[in-house]
Amino acid sequence: MLTFLNRIFVGPFYARNAGTFLVLILLAFGFLSGREHKALITAAIGSPFLLSLVFVLWGLYLLKTISFVWQELTAIEHLFLQTFWLVPVPARGLLWLAIQSALLAPVIAYAGWMVQIATLYQKWDSLGAICGYVAVLTLVGAWFNDYRLRHPNPDTIRLPSLRIKLPYELFFPTYWLRHEPISLVLTKAFSGLLLAGVCRLYPTDDYDQRLLLIGLLMAILGHSQVSGQVKAFEQRYLLILPNLPFNWWQRFGRYALTYGLIWTPELLILLRNCPVEVSIYYVVALWLTGWGWLLVMHSLNYWQNILPDRWLSGAFVSFIVGLLAIMFGLPIGAWLIFGWITAWGYWYRCFTLSGSAGNS
């Protein structure tokens, strides 16, 4: 039974968020040495404020796992799981605890490292707080999951709503905000904080514009799962879309507007935190470059059925290649032009070939 539940909840959860986990790992362990990371943990276990910030991040991650489990429990293809509540309560509780522990594996692993350092410095209060908080996270997650299983259609209070006719470009952003808010918040928070942090590094030392390009590359990869979410949304709710009489540039333009809306907060963050040493035109070009490369990822994912592990491998290879290109001084103009031409050309080629195949 546990193996079966792992294939429904644990495996798909990590596969769907593979891009986000990759970027977090590269940020945490690729740019910080072991000594620097240990220093951060030491500061956290010695400061209640910093430790509380860590706990807040872990709580947000818990909400993401709960949101995913609730979504899977209500999916049409998983309605048979409603019979799971017939399993005796003790056995069902243990199964939910095992599932929630697997979903919280990154948090538990990091907490284990913090416990090791807390033991080394004899910070027994921090050690107890970390262990207790992780246990509470696991128990709360298991309880919420079981509650949703027992209440698949909970009573809700209906408030008066304003009906607005949405254009197509707002379909997915609205769905993302209403039905996957944790994914939206984590994606935009990671990207925004990363770009703001990179901008604020400039006054502390002598950096060139390659630092901003590296931050942009990581922010783009932080959105690597969005193209898959857009595709899954359309395959579930907009099955008629491929049959509508739109030509290639109309479809491409609509997706460009959708991703432009998704990418707009990054423009505001870059303009707000623009370093004095960097031209405002360079910052705008940086944002346009990110917009184009988001469309590249969308085009690749839209026209191909790429397995999650291959998508993860591709994201990792793209990061390495992009980092080398930045280090060798590839200018922002080349990134901007190549990204938009690649997105436009690949979309046009695949649309033309699919149209020819359909006519034949």
TrEMBL record:
The chain crosses the membrane at residues 13-32, 39-63, 94-115, 127-144, 181-199, 211-232, 252-271, 278-296, 316-341. It comes from Spirosoma profusum. This is Uncharacterized protein. Keywords: Membrane, Transmembrane, Transmembrane helix. The keyword Membrane applies.
